Task: inverse folding
């Protein structure tokens, strides 16, 4: 069978290059009735209506190979790309499995995760110079800190661990709830056991907030609290793990993260919500983030995913806050066929204006718009708005959902494509 993604990408590139539609080989495979439409109209149709499971499967299979090859080549010099790319492309595979019912997506991710295990610190024997031990996690090199080890140390982050383990714990949750997926039970059992071990190793970074029943994480080598969106990434993995184990420790920590967020977010008289890069008790350590009047949308997308998932999985979230989040996403973040730069309108500019750089035509972080699809169950118009923005805004999304695999791809576009598969 030919590669569906490569065929799709060849058609997209030909349309983008201005090739006459009648001369584009394979066009009718994806657009069977092109009629007299011009390239711009056909491109909008391709990106806005053609969501093919074979295309996404072939893209992810190719990308998974690249992710592992890159990490193996980097060895002990790797950064956080392994976690971010495996984590968010892995999410795409799990969403595709949910929306199509096709087990091949689950199988594909299971293979990726198992092949990433030899790259984990305990398999490599990589000593974490900050935590003082070999961690059951995927560390990174080059973290700058004045320590006895000098400058540039090997260290694991609870953020990277959460990103990596979100799809893994989701796989475990599904497999252990479905006897038909029993071929992955041994892997699911291992993920559950590994999470109990690996997650608790980050208790070293946990801080109890004085005068409250809340907890938060301290960021290794940066000497400040983790930003809100980072903690919410580990929170998503904890939601899945708690669904499997029912362990009260995870439930209480999830509730603590929710309480902290509820204190940190503000809703104005118009019902518009906003929050900052760090929670209410901490000042931003980033000059750029400190200048923002509210969280940048590409970062806030991680919080959106956690809060809606927590509500969906039975954890109490202030309903007025949830309603304000949905309203703000619909009426501000995704308003006017655009993507706002900040979660709250005050001080916000459109994404391209906020992040404009002379001569730059590619905007990979704009694909974080797909994180807002987590709110689509609360308001289905959010799904339609994201679909239309990506399909029509060539200035912001020149490659559409699936940035060509031979180029360095950011992690979030395939997640949006996966959400568009199957049921409406």
Result:
């Amino acid at each position: 069978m030919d590669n569906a993604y490569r065929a799709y990408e060849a058609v997209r590139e030909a349309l983008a290059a201005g090739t006459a539609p009648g001369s584009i080989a394979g066009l009718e495979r994806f657009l069977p009735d092109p009629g007299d439409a011009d390239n711009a109209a056909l491109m909008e149709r391709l990106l806005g209506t053609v969501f093919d499971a074979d295309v996404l499967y072939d893209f992810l299979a190719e990308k998974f190979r690249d992710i592992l090859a890159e990490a193996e080549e980097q060895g002990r010099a790797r950064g956080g790309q392994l976690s971010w790319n495996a984590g968010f492309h892995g999410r795409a595979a799990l969403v595709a499995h949910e929306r199509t019912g096709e087990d091949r997506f689950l199988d594909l991710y299971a293979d990726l995760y198992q092949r990433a295990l030899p790259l984990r610190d305990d398999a490599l024997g990589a000593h974490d110079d900050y935590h003082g031990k070999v961690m059951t996690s995927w560390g990174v090199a080059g973290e700058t800190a004045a320590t006895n080890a000098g400058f540039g140390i090997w260290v694991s982050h609870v953020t990277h661990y959460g990103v990596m383990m979100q799809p893994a714990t989701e796989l475990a949750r599904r497999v252990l709830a479905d006897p038909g997926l029993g071929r992955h039970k041994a892997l699911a059992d291992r993920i559950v056991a590994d999470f109990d071990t690996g997650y608790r190793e980050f208790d070293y970074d946990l801080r109890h907030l004085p005068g409250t029943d809340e907890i938060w994480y301290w960021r290794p080598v940066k000497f400040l609290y983790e930003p809100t969106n980072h903690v919410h990434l580990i929170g998503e993995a904890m939601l899945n793990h708690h669904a499997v184990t029912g362990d009260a420790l995870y439930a209480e920590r999830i509730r603590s993260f929710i309480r902290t967020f509820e204190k940190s977010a503000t809703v104005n008289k118009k019902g518009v919500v906003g929050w900052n890069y760090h929670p209410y008790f901490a000042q931003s350590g980033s000059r750029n983030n400190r200048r923002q009047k509210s969280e940048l949308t590409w970062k806030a997308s991680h919080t959106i995913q956690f809060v809606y998932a927590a509500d969906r999985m039975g954890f109490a979230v202030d309903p007025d806050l949830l309603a304000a989040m949905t309203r703000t996403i619909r009426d501000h973040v995704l308003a006017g066929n655009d993507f706002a730069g900040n979660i709250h309108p005050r001080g916000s500019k459109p994404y391209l204006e906020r992040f404009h750089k002379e001569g730059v035509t590619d905007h990979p972080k704009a694909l974080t718009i797909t994180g807002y699809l987590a709110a689509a169950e609360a308001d289905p118009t959010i799904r339609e708005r994201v679909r239309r923005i990506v399909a029509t805004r060539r200035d912001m999304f020149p490659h559409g959902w699936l940035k060509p695999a031979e180029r360095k791809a950011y992690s979030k576009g395939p997640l949006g494509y996966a959400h568009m598969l199957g049921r409406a």
